[in-house]
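pasting for ref
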Amino acid sequence: MERGKLLEYMTIFGAAAILGVLAYIAAVGLYEIDNYGAVAEKTAFGAGQYETIKVTAYRYGWIFEYPNGSKSLNTLYIKAGKLYRLELTSSDVVHAFYIRELGYKYDTVPGFVYTVWLKVDKPGVYNVLCAEFCGAGHYRMLGRIVVEP
């Protein structure tokens, strides 16, 4: 085999091997990210030690329903360091539950309930925005999360 062909084959197989390793690393990482909630729910860390809060998006705001049945409009109150299970849905059109400071962005779709796990360690106030254009009043769809110590 001539030297040029050998170099060509080594380059192709080397690149394929590197891409294969990167794909494996990405697949494992994404699996862990997507299944964090299921793991948290089964472990001692999460078993029974979380609260479920229902989040409903509507034109142009957010409804947060707590386990005791009380509701708040556009403001979610949680404790720092505690694990929360948020059940996201929409009552009208597609919205997006977006918390820029925490790196969360999940769509809310009418008729579907998406589970999101939230744990914020730093007390403060975080903005909740809609990242999907949901109509003429989209700019008014502002909420906040108040994380108490």
